[in-house]
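Q: Can I see a sequence and its folded structure?
A: Here is a first one.
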Amino acid sequence: KRELQANGEEAMALGVFGVPTLRVRDELFWGNDATDFALAYLADENALDAEMRRVDAIPEAIQRRRPA
């Protein structure tokens, strides 16, 4: 039980927000499709840079307004 609590506290400190989450070096990969991304990053830390820049440039289709 102590180990489970310690693991949960470590996950929160790392910023884990879902499962499954894989940690490779200091990067977190989240979701069922994370394994391929994590393996690509493990082989080459720059492997995902171009794709992340491309995805980051996609405009938002809609923004939800938060209640005041």
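Q: Show me another, different protein.
A: A second, unrelated one:
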Amino acid sequence: MRNFMTVLNAVSLFSSIGIAEYYLKDIGINVVLANEIDSKRAKAHLDIYPSTEIISGDITDKDIRKDIILKANKLNVELLIATPPCQGVSLAGLNKKSEDYLKDPRNFLILEAIKIFEELLPSYFLVENVPRFKKMLFPVDGEYIDLEELLIKKFGSSYNIKVEELNSADFSVPQSRARIVYRIWKKGLKWDIDNSKKIVTLEEAIGDLPSIESGEDSGLKNHFARLHPENHILAMKHTPTGKSAFDNLEYYPKKKNGEKIKGYNNTYKRMNWDRPAPTVTMRNEIISSQENVHPGRELSDGTWSDARVLSLRELLIVSSLPAEMEIPKSLNERQFRTLVGEGVPPLMMKGILEGVVV
């Protein structure tokens, strides 16, 4: 475990609005510098972390990289965090075939982070992405090798390198979210992980919140329900906990002419009370996306309550963020939901990093 009397300065690359960084100060890690290409996200990052310097720009630009390296050296950074965009390899994205990996430039952004690591050579380097990222191949010296091979080839003589698939639920996040994690740390140092923490179910996490329907506001901060189309609400009112409306004999997703919509059984689907939430996606604001609907409870008339997606408060809780967190002023609710869906649950990131020893 870290000696929290010692502050470890860190740089966060591809930081977005800094979802993953939320609890790092609690374990003595101070993100002093962050990089994000999107200026709106960079502004929101500054709203949340006013003491963190943010460099807004493209990491493939050598002047941006030079600026990051210069400032990181001045700030005595000993930890580099890289969470590159994962849509290019995500199962929820368009690129589902291996050959498509090579066509998406986002998949090679990690090579830019490695250039920064080579210049800084900090004590610790963390890379995380979706599990399929482990199969990505990168062009090195005339051959294609995966990231683990690349890291061993470049840094194996002076750094320990550990690659493993981890799940946020094993860090007491009430959400199941698998990630591939690369830990690189200088030989002679330690970096342990405890990923055997209590599993938190949806019932434990949000089961005590007031029931609300589409368009209603409970009066609790962030606990209001989004407005949904009437046909979606009707279908979900007749859909039990853990089931998809596509399983219904009558109240299934329909077009305006009454014809059944074609779709997957993990859409128009309610979550289960007795397990963590499924992976929160970027489109967590709509019923028709992947397993987004509140578990609900059976009512006396045989229908089911809470025919809606999770409220913002519930979304924050299952993402291990504070339930009463303020939305950054530069974002609206939908934009904020999208970025929460993209981010690594911060309790997971805290759990991964609290075992570093300096």
